[in-house]
Amino acid sequence: MPPSRWRNRVGGILLFTIALTRCMSIAYAGDPEFISIQSLLAQAPSYHLRSVTLEGVVRGIQVMPPIPPSFVRGGKGCVLYGQAIFSLDDGTTLLPVEVRGSCYPQVAEMLPKDGDTVRLTAIIHLLTTNLPVQVRAQATEIVIVDPH
User: Fold this and answer.
1) Please, which residues bridge with residue 21 across strands?
2) How far does Cα 78 stand from its chain's mean position?
3) What is the distance between the alpha carbons of residues 15 and 26, in angstroms, rounded to a whole number?
4) DSSP strands (E only) in the chain
5) pTM, two decimal places
6) Which of 9, 32, 56, 148 lies 20 to 30 Å from 45 when distance is taken between CA atoms?
7) Over the stretch 49-104, which tens digit does the pLDDT of each residue have?
């Protein structure tokens, strides 16, 4: 195996290990709290970088095309599949959700569709503290409860 290919493979394994370790530390912090989006927004600063469970309907999903490694981390790594953004509507209000994607092509096929009811676990990111607060959820797990 050429040295450059070996470095890319080792770099990919290292990146995966770091991501997995980060996810495991979140998972072992206890079960994520189930909360409505309205309650989340009302107490947004206290949920910054915490993992929560939300349920609602997917609205306006935009799935990004695969991103080649040349656009990810200086050309190292894998093609990124399944990156998406959408709004989650739980009947109280909407929340923007980001899906980071994966190196596995089949991940894109597993994304929810517009109108699907989903239960998701996400890390909450407080973008601004000025009123109205701006919050984004970074999905770590999505389960389709009721397909549209």
Assistant:
1) none
2) 18
3) 17
4) 33-34, 51-63, 84-89, 94-99, 117-128, 134-146
5) 0.74
6) 56
7) 999 999 999 999 999 999 887 655 555 678 889 999 999 999 999 999 999 999 89
